[in-house]
Amino acid sequence: MAERSTAAVDVADSGGEEPLTAEAGKATADGAGTKKKAGKGTEAAVTDDAGAAAEASPLELHSGHKLARRYRLEECVTRLDGFSSWRAVDEKLRRAVGVHVLPADHPRTRPVLAAARSAALLGDPRFVQVLDAVEENDLVYVVHEWLPDATELTAVLAAGPLEPHDAYQLVSQVSQAMAAAHREGLAHLRLNPGSVLRTESGQYRIRGLAVMAALRGITADHPQRTDTEAIGALLYAALTQRWPYETDAYGLSGLPKGVGLIAPDQVRAGVHRGLSELAMRALVNDGATASRQDQPCTTPEELAKAVAAMPRIRPPEPAFTPSPAYQRTTYQQGVYGQTPPRGGTSPAAAPVPPPPPLQSRTGKALKWTVSALLIAALGLGSWQLADTLLKDENNTSPSKSTGEKDDGNAGKVVSKPLKIEGSAEFAPDGSFQNSDQAQLTHDNDPSTYWRTKSYDDGPEFAPSIKKGVGIVYDLGSEQEVSGASVGLHYGGSYTQISLYATDSLNPSASASDPVGSFKKITSRKTTSKTAELKVKNSVKTRYVLVWMTALPSSPPEQYYTHPYKQAITEVKFTG
Asked: Which of 37, 267, 397, 559 is deepest in the core (most CB within 10 A)?
């Protein structure tokens, strides 16, 4: 067993001690004079660097301390190894942020600053964004997003394993995000249930890209292999609610000692076989996988492609819940709405005798009067009906006689607005536009909007750059969609918009053909700031994708200097 670092494990990340992956177990400290390897299930050993950090005096910070006259520290969530992490408030923008603070003379200061600045340049919304990285007054601090409405995967798994569709979304989104990071030369090296967050819309966000490993002094000879195995461990835990090593971690029990790495579908009954094999392909153990004919996945890119090649896993059908307004009533002959007595069925009730007939002269006169009135009413109604039918026959247009549809209002079904319950940006190629702005397109405020990036070519997207951009909307339940109104920020040139029915808020799709497996509802090309899309034959679906494949040209703006761009202000569906 390799020596353990004197540094405690980051409670903010794990909630307890954690084993690293096999490759991360070989990680070494930056700048360490002596490198020691750590076996699977141990923290990477840190020698000279850890000693220097341990000797460093702790930062004299407290709640209420203010950095750069802007970031007010609120609560310390981690204090170890010479640095501390805080929940803070950005008083300038009035929002919660997270802050890592360490002394300027800390041995890991330079790697932390370099990692933070590299992560900030990535700008991928699937990662918790680095907002600032500053060296000031003998302190170095890294400021990042704080997502109060997101839930750590640790807490999600504490409630039980994920459904196959949710586990599929987890491995799909995380592998695509890490593949994009590695293409830019960035690795995570501490990817675990404490560093993955799930938002209310079902999207997964990754925090600590490059920065957390730099704070811990962790490096790896094969960073892509390290991150791929970590994603496999996340999928394994999502399927089984067990950690795929012998050591307990993140509130999860480890595997029994001595049995080795066994497939998820052998740990828990009912596990999806395809996802089980995928987890084993990522958790390479000397080349052994759950299915010998499948090659191991050694990079996030390979894993993302393996996920995309799987048959689509559909979300579970929503369970039918009867409306509370519906109440079953009892009906018996002669008894209505009476509850039967306890202890058995109620005896047959005595029939209620009809009222006696009207025998008096007044009664007879009343009967004849009522009969005469009924006969007169029937005659009058028949005459009016015949007159109406005759008029309709005389006024019938040629289009009606030939069976063609009339353009008038007769026979039209009045459409009703459909409520939007949620939304999520759709970007199967991993290149999001502004995913955190999707909800602004259905907030009943036309002054707010979700906008695309700006592009040099247009209006049609260059095939090598992008296939399209769009947002998926959740209508809450299956609805008959008969049309949509899409408010746009820019007019001119033209915008090409299509509607597609999808199977979830975050549907899986290939980057080369994003909408090929979806059902097309309708499409429209417009040069105005409102696109009215009519559906010839209404489509029943819960999820609708608004997909744009052409953007208009407009003057350059700050941060949007290229000509072709668009923004969606407000989306409304009718059924």
From this structure: 267
